[in-house]
Design brief:
Elements: H1 15-26, H2 31-37, E1 42-45, E2 51-54, H3 56-61, H4 67-70, H5 75-79, H6 98-109, E3 113-120, E4 129-141, E5 144-153, H7 155-186, H8 192-224, E6 232-235, H9 236-248, E7 257-260, E8 268-271, H10 273-289, E9 296-303, E10 308-315, H11 321-326, H12 341-353, E11 357-363, E12 367-375
Parallel strand pairs: 7-9
Antiparallel strand pairs: 1-2, 1-5, 3-4, 4-5, 6-8, 9-10, 10-12, 11-12
Helix pairs in contact: 7-8, 8-9, 9-10, 10-12
């Protein structure tokens, strides 16, 4: 955090005032000593959500920052939240932050609160995520009202729970598709051409099942930081055909069409075959789930310069503003609890392992388009 950056947002007290508050807390007899003795990381916030005390456990939790460095900051500033440059708690999307919600509830009601908070950290070489359970309690020091906030790291628990739910959800969906095609194949009166078509679809479903299992292994490695991207020579049109064929074997594709956009181009590029497919398959699944029967979902592929390419998946539906603000937030999903590693996973794989970028646009007029931008021939990572 740049010097005095924490105090540039309207409504915050100055650094000098924050340090004066800290000195008053430190002078408050046994209170700071008691807080320092606790194993749980905790901070004390003033009415403007600025830190005026942090115990030793929190200073260690915050990568060894001293209390004087932390004093006057807001929680997102200390953790390095990617959205803190908007002003921690002041950005439109901060209303969905669990820490902001818990702090606001305690300030409003004077009662304890607890929320889960998922922060993407703006680190120099990567953007890791921290999953925290945030508990807030009203707190009085020297006649002044504050909010005490404690933090528990629940990253391992959330990761395991989410991956298990996603894994079983996707595997069951694929197995259901497999059963449908087997039943059709058993029916009497099916022509030889019909049987061949069904066998091709069964093959596609089997491919999907295998890729789902491989995909979960990929995400586990990516989340653990042990994934190593490969360098494979790929061809855009072959990739698009393979993706369309695979998508048509999904249960959610029934009654919908996957097509290659007319503007698509043929070109070769170097990337990790499994990771690129994982990202684009996730985009296709989301587009199909958001589309009513009869809709066409399109895959687009084009070069965007001498050294870059863009892959897109489009559907005519528009996401509401609340959903758009949370699309890449870890564990967010419109489909239920712990179902949100899809968009988070896209961004993680593209930006941390492929040297690319994932983005989206969504308007009532143009629908929703997710894009994956990649270098045509990336340097070794």
């Amino acid at each position: 955090m740049a010097a005095d950056a924490a105090f540039s947002s309207p409504g915050r007290i100055s650094r000098a005032e924050a340090l004066a508050d800290l000195r008053r807390v430190q002078a408050a007899g046994q209170v700071p000593q008691a807080l320092d003795s606790l194993a749980a990381p905790l901070i004390v916030l003033n009415a403007r959500r600025q830190v005026i005390f942090a115990n030793r456990a929190f200073q260690d939790f915050a990568r060894g920052a001293s209390i004087d460095e932390i004093c006057g900051s807001r929680p997102g500033d200390v953790f390095g939240c990617v959205h803190a440059h908007h002003g921690c708690g002041d950005w439109e999307g901060c209303g969905f932050c669990g820490a902001r919600q818990a702090i606001g509830e305690t300030q409003t009601t004077g009662q304890p609160a607890a929320r889960e908070c998922h922060i993407t950290v703006n680190a120099p070489e990567s953007k890791p995520a921290r999953d925290l359970l945030v508990r807030t309690t009203p707190f009085e020091i020297g006649g002044s009202q504050y909010v005490m906030v404690s933090f528990s790291d629940i990253s391992d628990l959330k990761r395991r729970s989410a991956l298990e739910r996603i894994f079983f959800h996707d595997i069951l969906n694929t197995a259901s598709s497999f059963r449908v095609y087997l039943d059709l194949l058993r029916r009497e009166g099916t022509t030889e051409d019909g049987k061949r078509n069904l066998l091709e679809r069964l093959t596609a479903v089997c491919d999907t099942l295998q890729e789902e299992i491989e995909g979960q292994k990929i995400m586990l490695s990516a989340e653990n930081g042990t994934l190593r991207a490969q360098r494979n020579l790929m061809e855009s049109h072959s990739l698009a055909l393979q993706l369309a064929r695979q998508a048509e074997g999904l249960e959610i594709a029934q009654g919908r069409t996957v097509a290659i956009a007319p503007f698509s181009e043929r070109f070769s590029f170097v990337s990790d075959d499994a990771l690129v497919k994982r990202i684009l398959v996730n985009m296709l699944k989301n587009a199909l789930e958001a589309s009513p029967p009869g809709v066409i979902v399109t895959i687009g592929l084009r070069r965007t310069g001498e050294a870059a390419a863009e892959f897109s998946v489009h559907n005519p539906s528009c996401m509401n503003r609340e959903v758009q603000l949370q699309v890449f937030r870890r564990y967010f999903s419109t489909k239920g609890a712990d179902r949100g590693l899809g968009t988070w996973g896209m961004k993680l794989l593209a930006e941390e392992y492929l040297g690319g970028r994932v983005a989206f646009t969504s308007t009532p007029r143009d629908g929703t388009t997710f894009t994956l931008s990649l270098p045509l021939n990336p340097s070794e990572r």
